Amino acid sequence: MRLALLREILANLARKPATLKYPVAREVTVAPGFRGKHYADLVKCIGCSLCAVDCPANAITMEKLPQPLKQNQRGIFPVVDYGKCVFCYQCVFVCPVKAYIVTEVFEMADHVIGTSRDISLSTIKGGGSA
Amino acid sequence: MVIVEIPIGPQHPALHEPIMLKVRTEGEEVVEVSVNTGYNHRGIEKLLEKNSWVRGMYISGRVCGICNAVHMQTYVQGVEKLMGVEPPPRANYIRTLVMELERIHSHMLVAAVMAEIIGFDTLFMLLMRDRERVMYLKELVTGNRVHADIHMLGGVKRDLDEVRRDRILSELKIVEERIKYYMKVFEEDYTIMKRLSEVGVIRKSEALRLSIVGPTLRASGIKSDVRSDDPYAAYSEIPFNVVSRDEGDSWARMMVRFGEALESVSIARYTVEKLPQGPAIPKTIPRATKPGEVISRVEAPRGELLYHIVSVGGANPYRVKIRTPSFLNILNTEKVYIGHRLADVPVIFASYDPCISCTERVMVIDEKSGKKTYVSMRDLARVRVG
Ligand code: SF4
Ligand code: SF4
Asked: Which listed CATH number (3.10.20.30, 3.20.20.70, 1.10.287.990, 3.30.70.3270) goes with A28-130?
């Protein structure tokens, strides 16, 4: 019994630590397909509000578009409050036109309340990044 | 000798859960324990009534972090029954895979917690390190290491591709070896045996009388498992053994969990290898239920989890009653501590694999003559049992 443990301990002497020195060293990786920061692509969004209706955390509010968009007759777009969002991706799933752009970004702690407003609006001009 | 009352919790280094054990001791010997709860009530059942069927999925998943997929499964399979929807076989296999990964990491966690409580911190670190592999697999399949959120009414939200399947199989091989190794450590280590064996014995008849569930029940020699007694998801098609032991002590409970974790590895492997073809993701989300009620139960890592869902046909549930395994396992076992040493109390408590966040959903406030009296969960449990 003790031999088994002793072998484990000896093997660990040669190993590098399993814990990561976060945030000093940013070597934290997530699995591909991780549910991270997401925002609506306003070129696709039709303003149907389905995502806001289904969001279990009430994290999505529909706001007025600053300019008219052809496919979006209602003139509203979803803004995700990342502080409220639980990253369940119900909004991504329910969207009838697959308007949400998903990323694997998970580092969102900030001193100001982060929303998807600016990043979503930047998609109008073909922009938009994580 | 004088009797001393020692409160353990609600915040205490030896208990990882917000609960208070009022321990009365005579010298080192425990003469009485009363369990005090109520530190983690969040009103989830009410919240479910106030939200739509779809939102309810995610709310039920958030009853507990560790057991989120089983909570969602219980809710979703109940609602699917009310809606007359049948998930496709592929979706059932993926659900089963996620639930079994959850069982593996849950059982590894309680083994680690137990190691830490008895002062074996190295083992705690090693177990937590290897548990991370399972967490990664869960993240790979579902998109998050804790909250799976993969269930959807009528299927799952995400399919499983070939690359992921290969990765799961190769990781499961390592996980299996590690679990076998830790099982051996728990079996052979002198210190662990000294601390766990013959501690907190629950006899077979007592386990039945107290309505104990899950690994705690199976460690008392009763082979009862919802997965085999009342199969759900894909369990009717998957071969597996129900692990049980006869000793009934804290050690037996840990060994049952290790045995189950190994079974879970083989179930997970089976689901990945024999994954049926066909669709898994529903095209539309069903939203309307017929009036009626349904009882839905699954085997959570801690035992039988039961949802009673009532629908009157509207957009929201009329009532969702949740009965969780820890509720029975913690509140009904106060007598088990008696006669043991004070230092055994955390060991016995941890051996039930307690989960407070799922236990505390009810708080009755009795407003008599304008005065509020709080009825504790324990009293409620007494009323129910007595
Ligand atoms: S991921 Fe879930 S919680 Fe977040 S905005 Fe979408 S629906 Fe709401
Ligand atoms: S569901 Fe899709 S299309 Fe509808 S408002 Fe949300 S992002 Fe826009």
From this structure: 3.30.70.3270
